[in-house]
Automatic annotation (TrEMBL):
Protein name per UniProt: Extracellular solute-binding protein
KW Signal (keyword) present: yes
Subcellular location as annotated: Periplasm
Disulfide bond in keyword set: no
InterPro entries: Bact_solute-bd_prot1, SBP
Signal peptide: 1-23
Keywords: Periplasm, Signal
Family recorded in the similarity comment: Belongs to the bacterial solute-binding protein 1 family.
Organism expressing this protein natively: Devosia algicola
Length: 419
C-alpha cells in the first residue's frame, strides 16, 4: 500500500514535534485533536483531571493537535522517539490501517482482557480498532479503543424552518423543494466548506443515496475495483446544487469553522456535518437547533469514533491504559452523552441531555437499518487529499462529474489491484 510522500511527512513532523524530552518514567504524554467545547473535549478534559488526581506524582503533558497534523504526519511521529504515551488517531484503512500494517501500535488484546474493556466494548465496537497485515479493518489484532460513536446528519435552524412552514423532509425530493423556498428568499440553504473535510461528507451522503450495504462493503474493504456510479451521481448533484443556489460556489474557500459560523449565525438554515458539532451547535443556538438523518438515505457516513492508540514506542504504556479506563467509566460515558455527544458504552438512564438523547436515538436507528457507511477517505492511504481536492474541484466546476469520478477511481484501483 502506498504511503505519504517523505516531504509531506517531514513537513507534518515539524508541525507536530515539540522538542519535549521524556525526562523520566514519571511523565505521561497525551495528544488529542478534539475542540475544547466538543463532547469529546469536555469529557476527556474531565478524565484528565481525574487522572491527575489519581496520579499526583505524575507529570502530565497534554498537547492539543489538529486532525490534519495527525493525518499527515502520524506514521512518522509514531515511528519516532517523539511519540506520546497515548494519542487520538483516525480510524480506517488509510490512517490507522496504514500505521497498523507497519507495526507502529501496541497490540491491546491481552490488555483489553486484563482491564475488562472486552466486557464494555462489543465486537461491532471494535471492528474499526482491528486491522489485518494489509491494514484492512475488521480483523487482526486490537490496536485501538473507541469510546464514542459518530455519524453525519443534517442540523437545521428550527426558527428558519418554522418561518417558512417547512417540516423535516423525508426524501431527497422534499429536501430540494424546501431548499427552493429558501433560495427564493435569497438564502443559501446549506452552509458548506469545500476547503476542508465537510464537503466530503455531503458528497458521500449523495453517493450513499445510490448505494447499498454490498457497495459499502466492497468499497471500504477493497474487495473489487471501484464502482464509480454513486460518485458520478454525487458529482452531478453537487454541480446541480451549486447551479440552483443550494450551496455556494464560494464554499470552495471555506474551512469547517467558517461553515459552522454561517450556520449558527442564521445565514443558512442547514448544515450537513457530524455529531462532533452537536455540543457546539447547542451551546450557540440552544433549543433552536434540530437534527435529522439525510432524507431518503438508508446509509449515512457513520462509525464508532476515533480511537485511542498506544504507540509502540510509548514509554509509559500502563499510564495510557489507566487513562483509557477512565474514559470508559460510566461517569465519563454519561458526561459524553450529557455534553451533546454519542457515548459508546453509556447507561441510557444516565444520559438526560436532549442533544445527546437525540443523537443516541438516531444512531440506534442507523445501526438497526445497517446504515453505517463509514467515510469516503478511508479505503487507501492518501485518499483523504484525493477526495478533498476532487470534491472541491467538482463544486468549483473545474472538473466534470465524469472527471470527478475518475479522480476517485484511479488511486483506489491502483491499491485495490495489489491486494
Amino acid at each position: 500500500m502506498r504511503v505519504l510522500s517523505k516531504m509531506a511527512l517531514a513537513i507534518g513532523a515539524m508541525a507536530l514535534a515539540t522538542g519535549v524530552v521524556h525526562a523520566d518514567n514519571k511523565t505521561f504524554r497525551i495528544w488529542w485533536y478534539e475542540a475544547a467545547d466538543s463532547a469529546a473535549g469536555i469529557t476527556w478534559t474531565q478524565a484528565l483531571d481525574t487522572f491527575k488526581a489519581d496520579h499526583p506524582d505524575i507529570d502530565v503533558q497534554f498537547e492539543l493537535k489538529t486532525f490534519d497534523q495527525i493525518t499527515k504526519a502520524g506514521t512518522l511521529i509514531l515511528n519516532s522517539s517523539e511519540a506520546p504515551d497515548l494519542m487520538e488517531y483516525n480510524k480506517g484503512n488509510s490512517v490507522a490501517g496504514l500505521a497498523a500494517s507497519q507495526g507502529l501500535f501496541t497490540v491491546l488484546d491481552d490488555v483489553a482482557k486484563e482491564r475488562g474493556w472486552d466486557k464494555v466494548l462489543t465486537d461491532a465496537s471494535n471492528q474499526l480498532s482491528r486491522y489485518d497485515e494489509n491494514g484492512i479493518y475488521g480483523s487482526g489484532p486490537l490496536i485501538g479503543v473507541a469510546n464514542y460513536g459518530e455519524y453525519v446528519s443534517v442540523y437545521y435552524n428550527k426558527e428558519m424552518f418554522a418561518a417558512e412552514n417547512i417540516s423535516v423532509p423525508t426524501s431527497l425530493a422534499e429536501l430540494e423543494a424546501d431548499m427552493d423556498i429558501f433560495v427564493k428568499k435569497g438564502i443559501t440553504p446549506i452552509a458548506e466548506a469545500a476547503n476542508d473535510y465537510p464537503a466530503q461528507h455531503l458528497m458521500y451522503e449523495l453517493a450513499l443515496s445510490q448505494a447499498d450495504a454490498g457497495w459499502v462493503s466492497d468499497f471500504q474493504g477493497l474487495k473489487a475495483p471501484l464502482d464509480t456510479a454513486p460518485f458520478l451521481y454525487a458529482g452531478q448533484k453537487l454541480q446541480e446544487w451549486v447551479e440552483k443556489g443550494y450551496i455556494s460556489k464560494d464554499s470552495t474557500g471555506f474551512k469547517a469553522a467558517d461553515m459552522a459560523s454561517q450556520f449558527t449565525s442564521g445565514k443558512s438554515p442547514m448544515v450537513v456535518t457530524g455529531t462532533w458539532y452537536g455540543a457546539p451547535f447547542a451551546a450557540a443556538m440552544g433549543d433552536n437547533v434540530g437534527q435529522f438523518l439525510f432524507p431518503g438515505n438508508v446509509i449515512s457516513p457513520a462509525s464508532t469514533g476515533n480511537i485511542w492508540v498506544v504507540p509502540k514506542n510509548a514509554e509509559n504504556k500502563d499510564l495510557a491504559y489507566d487513562f483509557i479506563d477512565i474514559t470508559l467509566s460510566k461517569e465519563n460515558q454519561a458526561l459524553f452523552g450529557n455534553s451533546g455527544g454519542l457515548p459508546i458504552a453509556a447507561d441510557p438512564a444516565m444520559v438526560t441531555d436532549p442533544v445527546g438523547h437525540e443523537e443516541v436515538t438516531l444512531f440506534n436507528q442507523l445501526v438497526a437499518q445497517n446504515g453505517l457507511g463509514f467515510y469516503p477517505d478511508w479505503p487507501v492511504p492518501g485518499y483523504y487529499d484525493v477526495v478533498l481536492q476532487a470534491t472541491q474541484a467538482v463544486i468549483s466546476g473545474t472538473v466534470t462529474p465524469e472527471q470527478f469520478a475518475e479522480r476517485m477511481q484511479k488511486p483506489y484501483d491502483d491499491v485495490q489491484s495489489d491486494q
